[in-house]
Structures are given as C-alpha cells and as structure tokens.
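Reopening this ticket.

The earlier resolution said the output was attached, but the attachment link was broken on my side. Pasting everything inline this time so it's all in one place.
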Amino acid sequence: MAELVRVAALTGYFETMAGLGTDPRPLLQEQGLSADLLANPEQFIPARAAIRLLERSAEESQCLTLGLRMAQGRALANLGATSLLIAHQPTLRQSLAALSEFRARINSTLVLHIEEQGGEVILREDFVLSRPEPMRQSSNLTLGVLTRLCASVLGDDWKPRMVCFSHEAPPPSAMAPFYSLFRCPLQFNCEFNGIIFLVSELDRPNLKADSQLALHARYLIETVMKPTTLSTAQNIDRLIALLLPSGRANIQTCAASLGLTVRTLQRMLETEGANFSELLNRARMQLAVQYLANPRMRITDIADILGYSSIGAFTRWHSQTFGMSPRQKRSLELKTGGVQSHARPDQMVEG
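Inline output:
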C-alpha cells in the first residue's frame, strides 16, 4: 500500500520553524525532502517522511507543541479540492462522511472513526502504517486540524467537551497552544487520541451549507480528480484499526463487514500479495509502540487491547517482533527520554 500524503499536510511548517528560530533545511534533507518539493501543496510525498520530519523538527527546536502551532494556522481550504465538498454538507455528520470518503486524496495513512456512546461522540483519526513510527507531533496536528474542521461547520464559537491525548501532559510552560486551540478540558495519558462532543452536534444544521456548491464539488472530484478505490488490504487495514481495541479484529468480523465470506476475503488479499495475519500483526506493532510509550498504561491492559488472552502471550509476541520484552522496551524508552515516568494517568487540565 502506498503511504502518501499531500504536501498541504505540512502547511505552516516553514513559518512555524522560522518562529522557533530553527533552520529546517538540514531536517528536510534528512528525510529526502526539499523546500522546492514542498512548494506545490497538491504534490504527494511519503507519509513516513512527513511524520519523521515533524518529530525531528520538534526535537531540534525543543518545541513539544510544534504540531499544534502548525494547526493554529490551518483552514479548511488546506484540504484541497475536497474542502468545498466538506464545507457545504448540510450537517457535520455528512461533512465527516465526505472527509472519510475522499481521505485517500488527502492522506492515505489516516482512517476516521466516529463512535457514539451515551449521548457523546468520540471522533478520532488513527494512522495506519506498515511499520510503527513515533508520531506525537503528527497526532497533535491531526487533532488540531480535525477540531478546526468541526468548528468551520458548527461555528467559530464551537468547542469540544474534551480532547484526549495518548501522550503525557507537557510542562505548564508548554500548555498555551493547547488552551488556545482546543478551549476545553484536556485529558492526557489516554488510550487514544480523540475529540469528544455531543451526539446532537453531529446533526446540527450547517448554516453555511449550499447544496448546489456541494454537488458541483463532488462532480469536480469524481470526474477530474478520479479518486482511486481502496484496495482490499487498505479496507482491512482500516477495519482492523477500528475493531482491534474492542477485541473484534478477526478475519470473520472483517469479512462480514465487507459482505464477504472468509475464503473470498482470503483470496482477494492473496491476489494483492497480502494476508490477514500480516495486516493484523502490523496494526498490533503500531499500537504496541503507542501504548507502551504511555508510562501509566499497564502492560496487562495493553495485552488485552491488542487481543492477547494473557500477558505471557503478548510478551512472547513482542519479544519475537521487537527483540525485547514489553517491560524492556518501556525501560529503554524511559532511559532514553522517550516517555516521562512522572506523568499521572488521570492528569486533567482545564482549558
């Protein structure tokens, strides 16, 4: 699967780095990128290069909030041709459906999840990569852009009920971008990165919607841009990311979700040179890296989330995959500064 993202995903990067007094050119070169390559926002670049660029840039500039600073300057128009279609949907629910439909034209590694629970919505976008990558800055940038998208549909005065982050809380001196962007209570050391708001807001009328403009935008996208159909493997990647935390990421559930028999799904994956076990293992690798980076998540809970019946089975898998046990991996992260051991699991900050 090609892991690509539009250059527009890095909108605001140069301005942010200039404001931090850091030269981005050596960092771009590290990832095989250049300022000239990034001049065209519609150009596609490797998603992994963009993710690594943001992490290295945050490290070099010593700015924990690089992704959020970039998100502050974003507008819906940065989504390109799809922005017109998204902006003129009659409700936020339909805007998010349009975003999900044409996600491959924006960022092929992101999958949108909408979960309705007890009158609230959990809205999250998860990265689906062939190999795990640290991505705190990219995740924060995505949350910021998603929040601004919701506000563009629901009104500038809208704000979430809460925003959740899987990483530890930053020091108080770095909280200003969180406060100004999200304007709501913030929860750190969570099991996911996501936005929480009322279900009723999904269907609140979009006062700026124009059905004729929406139809025109869809015509342009479908006839001129010719969006590509997702492969079977890409569909399974997204289903696994959605089902894994609930323990339902098995081939039977995925096949049923696509209206296929298990054998038909297996044959379709084989045609693409993929198989379900490899796709599941890849998703587990990505989530294992994310969850173990959270110092307050118990390894027993991580094993359960990843679908292992015992911590022993999880440990054996992790050792075979990463060459060390989960505890050794977490210890190494602590020693190298990958995570901070003093963060509290229930740390909440009021915006």
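Reporter confirms the inline version is readable. The chain has two domains: 4-221, 232-336. Residues 75 and 185 are 23 Å apart (CA to CA).
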